[in-house]
Amino acid sequence: MKHIFLIGFMGSGKTTTAVKLSKTLQTSYIDTDKLIEELRGKTIPSIFAEEGESAFRNYESETLHMIENKLIVSTGGGIVEREENIQFMQDNGVIIYLKTSLDVITNRLEQDKSRPLWKDEERNTRLYRKRQALYESCADLTVHCDGLSVDSITNEILSFVRYKGILRGE
């Protein structure tokens, strides 16, 4: 089964889009960050604090390989930090980059304390720029999300996956 992998920076709308896509397609989805929390019995900030980013990245890679019958996969923002994850996604589906400007993300995450890598403006900007290049290099489709509704984003993705013949029965 081919998967639809949603990638993008934290706060770009991957989970919201995954939920909308799953309702539209009447299928289930998986959020890798939520699955990691369930499997480890800890929040992501706790994992970062107690075990470090490297341990979290290991869990992220393990979790990605656990996906079986989920058509839609909402990934963590750092999934592209490891080449093996990119290769897995390329081998098993299409990669959709939800490109959202740093200004929009900053507004969304202003009060969010649950993101261990969202620290200060300078660090956020560096991380955003680094990951943006990774997202762009591996995406099969880039959706420019600023100013778009979740319905518009979903429709753009659906048009693309239908064109590519990703959906079952098409």
Topology, please?
Layout (H helix, E strand, L loop, with lengths): L2 E5 L6 H12 L3 E3 H9 L3 H8 L1 H12 L7 E3 L8 H10 E7 L2 H8 L11 H18 L2 E4 L5 H15 L6
Parallel strand pairs: 1-3, 1-4, 2-3, 4-5
Helix pairs in contact: 1-8, 2-4, 3-4
The main pleated sheet reads as: 5 strands, parallel
The stretches of 5 or more residues where confidence is low (pLDDT under 50) are: none
Global Rg: 15 Å
Strand line-up in the sheet with most strands: 2-3-1-4-5
- Level-1 CATH class name: Alpha Beta
Question: Would you give the CATH topology?
Answer: Rossmann fold
Give the % helix: 40-55%
- As an assembly, this protein is single chain
Number of strands: 5
| Shape type | globular
Could you explain the architecture of this structure?
The protein is α/β, with parallel strands linked by helices and 170 residues long. It has a single domain, classed as P-loop containing nucleotide triphosphate hydrolases (Rossmann fold, 3-Layer(aba) Sandwich), CATH 3.40.50.300. It is 54% helix and 13% strand. It is built from 8 helices and 5 strands. Strands 2-3-1-4-5 form a 5-stranded parallel sheet, with helices on both faces. α1 (14-25) crosses α8, α2 crosses α4 (53-64) and α3 packs across α4 (53-64). It is globular and about 45 Å long. The mean pLDDT is 89.
Give me some keywords for this one:
single chain; 170 residues; alpha/beta; Rossmann fold
